[in-house]
Amino acid sequence: MTESPNPLFEFLLRQGDNALVLGHRTSEWCGVGPALEEDIALANTALDLIGQTQLWLGYAAEVEGKNRSANDLAFMRDAYDFRNILMLEVPNEDFGRTMVRQFLFDAFQVPWLSALRQSSDQRVSEIASKSVKEAQYHLERSAETVIALGDGTPESHARMQAALNYLWPYSGEMFGNDSTDQAMHEQGIAPLPQSLHKPWMQSVSNTLAQACLAVPEDPFAHSGGRTGFRHTEHLGHMLSTMQVLQRSYPGASW
Amino acid sequence: MNAAVLTEKQVWDWLEQVPDPEIPVISIVDLGVVRNVCVEHDDDTQAASVKVTITPTYSGCPAMREIATNIESALTQRGITDLELQTQIAPAWTTDWMSEVGKQRLEDYGIAAPQAKGAPERCPQCKSTAVEKVSQFGSTPCKAQWRCTDCLEPFEYFKCI
Ligand SMILES: [Zn+2]
Fold first, then answer.
1. Domain architecture of chain B: domains with CATH
2. In chain B, what residues touch A44 (CB-CB under 8 Å)?
3. Are the C-beta atoms of residues B159 and A44 closer than 8 Å to each other?
4. Which residue of B has its CA nearest to A38?
5. CA neighbor of B139 nearest in space, from A34, A40, A27
6. B138 CA distance to ligand 1 centroid (A)?
7. The model's pTM
8. In this structure, what DSSP letter does residue A87 have?
């Protein structure tokens, strides 16, 4: 891993890639959702996330100053250049895992984007102000769904608990702390993510208790996504689908 | 065109005739998507240059490109050749910017208007207040699905953000 010459670029990639990778994963449900309403909700959530991606990666491209666009960053980078957390790239598996993941992420995004509204960087503040409204809406739904399915039938409960057990070790990466985080903190661009860990834990535990789901106790946390050091094998497969058009016909547009 | 007659008010009036692509009963002005209109005249030639600033409802709103195209064609049809379209995201769009006329037109069309409390006031069909949520999301990013428990009709609710 090499030290990034521009921590702001790195920071913006993390924001944009989180939105992009989760947005793409969520879009995989389009047309195969468990019920029409859920299918529509998932597609709309994906659309919000892809919209946020355009804002973050658009600004990242400007900051980088190498004449690349948001589209170039999304479709022409390889897996090791992505800076999303691993939790967002693992496969959807079932509706339960999809919703638990959305919930764990939304519960972070809402306080995170709220804090970014105060960023010393005006563009970051503007993008966060726009995105946080959508994130709040997503959180309402994902928290409600986690409660309904966790406190549902024996089958839905078992699946939700399995999903939580699977995803939990990936959630710790949201609160990473490295030189990029430090640089953003020092410049007043963003708070340290780890400062949000305690309130996140409280709000998540509260919802999971209502959902009759047990918070896993293992403190182990996977990492390597937000630094690009080591992605899971799943990201490459996802990108091969997501990027196939631009890879096959570079510059294609419509 | 002879620009001496062109005012910002005139441009706003023209834009009020541009329908929202997804909910054509309201205009893009009623929706609050048009944030600013600026008309300037060249000192020598008096030629008008027009700058229109728009903002997306949702960051991923797929209608933005169509809205921009519709603005361009509406204004070029009226003879404006020097037109600049700007997109801004701050301040973030809010349903507070929707006009009262717009809200009324929505209800007449069968879509419940946004309410600060986050739920529709009444069924746009029979006006009953006995309504319940079906889904937080609907056919476009800006709408949710509700249903009336009196007349049993489903209806769309314009989300309040
Ligand atoms: Zn009714």
1. 3-94 (3.30.300.130), 110-158 (no CATH)
2. 137-138, 141
3. no
4. B135
5. A40
6. 18
7. 0.93
8. G
pLDDT at B139: 85
Q: Is B61 touching A (CB cutoff 8 A)?
A: yes
pLDDT at B28 over 70: yes
Residue of chain A nearest B133, judged by CA positions: A37
* Residue with the two structure tokens 């600049």: B84
Give B29 Cα–ligand 1 centroid separation in angstroms.
29
The residue extents of the domains of chain A are 7-216+229-248
pLDDT digits (tens, 9 = 90+) for B72-102: 999 999 999 999 999 999 999 999 999 999 9
Q: What φ, ψ does residue A86 adopt, rounded to 5°?
A: -60, -35
Pairing relationship of beta strands B111-112 and B154-158 according to DSSP bridges: parallel
Q: Is A52 on the interface with B (CB under 8 A)?
A: yes
Q: Which residue of A has its CA nearest to B118?
A: A137
Task: Give me A171's structure tokens.
Answer: 């959630």
Q: Across the beta sheet with B111-112, what order do the strands follow?
A: B111-112, B154-158, B143-148, B131-135
Give the pair of three-digit tokens for residue B26: 């309201």
Q: Give me the interface pTM, i.e. the ipTM.
A: 0.87
Q: Note the pLDDT tens digit of each residue in A28-64.
A: 999 999 999 999 999 999 999 999 999 999 999 999 9
| Closest of A212, A200, A224, A245 to residue A106, by C-alpha | A200
CATH 1.20.1260.10 fits A7-216+229-248, yes or no: yes
Per-residue pLDDT averaged across A178-194, rounded?
97
Is the pLDDT assigned to residue A4 strictly greater than 60? no
Q: Does B58 touch chain A (CB under 8 A)?
A: yes
Query: What is the whole-number distance in angstroms between the Cα of residue B160 and the centre of ligand 1?
Result: 20
Evaluate the omega torsion of the peptide bond into residue A199 and state whether it is cis, within 30 degrees of 0.
Answer: no
